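Please produce the structure of this protein holding zinc ion.
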Amino acid sequence: MRPKPPPNYLAGYPAALAAQVQQLIRQDKLADMLRQKYPQTHTVRTDKALYDYVLEAKGKYLGNAASLSKVAFDSKLHVIQNALGMHTTIARVQGAKLKTKREIRVAALFKDMPPEFLRMIVVHELAHLKEREHNKAFYQLCRHMEPDYHQLEFDLRAYLTYLDAEGEPLWLSVKADAGALTS
Ligand SMILES: [Zn+2]
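Below is the modeled complex.
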């Protein structure tokens, strides 16, 4: 069986811009650029911490728009396709009422990322609570929550492209230090 072609994380951008990222990767320059721009790793380590983080941002920007039944890191969720994370709406009948439950799952990959990228993915998923599609209103909402949204999404996609090209992860969590000697 042939392996599936890797997702093209930069498909939505002008070809010249995507080519520039590829070139920086080939020249071994992208990693340093990203590390300089984003020197830190965030500290949101657990589902509970992520839940609190998401809820705080939601309260600040969206108020009580929609309640979230679950927020979690998901280790099976790896690839960005059309969505960067995954947002699900589950309608179920509870007693006599139809209740809508909404969940936000963030790929576990985001545990080892700078705070800016975590913020970007959370903003993205929160915006989906109001807008299902990646339309103009959706991106307006993203920019309202994070003025630098577009640059962050581009830089994140550049990083994912770098990882796909067998680049070493640039941000490792504190927890990883403990087991680092075993390999
Ligand atoms: Zn999306």
